[in-house]
Write a structure and sequence with these properties.
The protein is mostly helical. It contains 8 helices and 2 strands, in the order H-H-H-H-E-E-H-H-H-H. It folds into 2 domains: about 1-115, Arc Repressor Mutant, subunit A (Orthogonal Bundle); about 115-165.
């Protein structure tokens, strides 16, 4: 299991490198590329939704959207039902760029797996789905993350967790 966790970490690091390389090739930053991906998969979104989905400050999203508009990849449109709000939408150039990035990604994944047995790929897909859900579940529990980190750090540096000290 430890080796699996190490390999999964290697995949995550490689994915980060891949995302940076793809974003750079497009002439944008990683957050800009992630924004294009969110808009492709979720459809038009208000800037506040992008703040939540990307985990960055609203001032940063405003600057990010300005850069994407300047590059001709997105535009802001009036929200059809909320006159005080806008939606960020992909331009045709933005849609073509992000679709091309995802197509290249799919090709690269396919190339890496093409010699694998189909049943192994199906099983691997099931396992990855479970891992992704477990990671999402953990990410949605910030208090539990803090507690688990504190416990592991205390154990690693030789101190006992608070619960053990009071006992």
């Amino acid at each position: 299991m430890e080796r699996l966790a190490e390999q999964l970490r290697a995949v995550i690091v490689a994915t980060d490198e891949y995302r940076r390389g793809m974003a750079s090739a497009l002439g944008v930053g990683v957050h800009e590329a992630a924004t294009l991906g969110e808009l492709l998969h979720q459809g038009p979104l208000p800037p506040s939704a992008l703040v939540k989905r990307l985990g960055i400050a609203s001032a940063s999203v405003t600057a990010l959207l300005d850069r994407l508009e300047l590059a001709g990849l997105t535009r802001r449109e009036r929200h059809p039902s909320d006159r005080r709000s806008v939606l960020v939408v992909l331009t045709p150039a933005g849609r073509a760029a992000i679709e091309a990035m995802f197509a290249i990604f799919s090709d690269d994944v396919y190339t890496s797996l093409r010699r694998s047995e189909p049943e192994h790929v199906r099983e691997f897909t099931v396992v990855l789905t479970k891992v992704a859900q477990a990671l999402r579940d953990r990410a949605g529990q910030p208090a539990e993350i803090v507690a688990a980190l504190n416990e592991r750090v205390r154990a690693a540096d030789g101190t006992r967790p608070d619960a053990e000290r009071s006992g």
